[in-house]
Amino acid sequence: MAKVEIVKSLLDQIMKKFKGEAHKIIDLLKTLEENPHKGKIVGQAGGLVIKELKHKSFRFYFIVEGNKLKVISKEELIDLLLFFVRMSDKNNQQKIINEIKLILGKFGAEGF
Q1: Does residue 112 sit within a domain?
Q2: Is the model's pTM score more than 0.85?
Q3: SS (H, E, C) the chain
């Protein structure tokens, strides 16, 4: 089982944008604890893989350590950290992905 951590700024943004439906969004993001291979790979930066998870017209971006995800078994995924960092709609999807890559390239995961 993987550990899912949602950045506070993103959590605040989810609460503001989705209000009463926010708990459904958080539950969707937490499903990665049981199935960490979920999501579409949208890029790589600084040795980390950037993936997205869709909900209606919104995308939620998270980062994982690419090497660990490919090499370890499901039982060893306990130590894997999935870190949700940004959210976008379809219109600014590529802009957000590029921002994530830039931050990861300069600062690593600690940049969030």
Answers
A1: no
A2: no
A3: CCEEEECHHHHHHHHHHHHHHHHHHHHHHHHHHCCCCCCEEEEEECCEEEEEEEECCEEEEEEEEHHHHHHCCHHHHHHCEEEEEEEEEHHHHHHHHHHHHHHHHHHHHHHC
